[in-house]
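Notebook entry, structure prediction.
Reason for the run: the old model in the group folder had no record of what sequence produced it. Starting over properly, with the input documented here first.
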Amino acid sequence: MSHLTDNDRQALELARDLRANMQQWLARQGGTGTFSISPFVDPTGRPSVIITMDSPLALAMVRSLDQQPAVAPQPPQLPQPPQLPQQSQRPQTQHAQHLPQPRHLAFPTQATA
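New structure, fully documented this time:
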């Protein structure tokens, strides 16, 4: 599996975790049903899954979701890049105001005949 990208691996892990949670949920519901979960990476590069299930399982899930308060899903937290220490802004001193301005050099042009 060394040819998989990080997003591919994340999609596989997402599918594995979701499959395990759905199996536990199904056992708690005392229901039966068949489902499959297929990992993929969507066109934007995000790890994703496709879930297919039979009608009895879908109806049981709908009933279960109707009984729970709606909660917006939280996007996964990505690691934050390390923060660089901010340099203090020093006010310009009088010395900096008296620095010579850069000179613009003019190069002679050659006329072509």
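Summary: The CA atoms of residues 95 and 101 lie 13 Å apart.
The old model has been moved to the deprecated folder.
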